Amino acid sequence: MKNVLIVDDATVVRKFTRDIFIALGFHVTEAPNGQQALDLCRKELPDIIMLDWNMPVMNGLEFLISMRKEKNGDKPIVIFCTTENEIGKIETALTAGANEYIMKPFDADIVKSKLIQLKVL
Description:
alpha/beta; five-stranded parallel beta sheet; Rossmann fold; single chain
């Protein structure tokens, strides 16, 4: 079973995203900010990270840059899911190591199609 880490400061978004991944057969872990996500990754790297950009304590971009520097930090597939839609921000996220980008609001079909595109499903 593949593991997914959902990183978002909004409880309702984490629950919605968790339900999508559980329905697809994933084991789910959650973190409300980048620092807690980084702490979890230092214990065990997930296969996939669904990552919000705007969060307190440590934002998504800061988390991504830090996580990619960790041992085996290049392994997890990172999907940014955010309201940030400026092309410059998308390029920044991809340059920092994100594998894909999903705009909020998203649904199960969008997540599933991204996972197929990334050859996870």
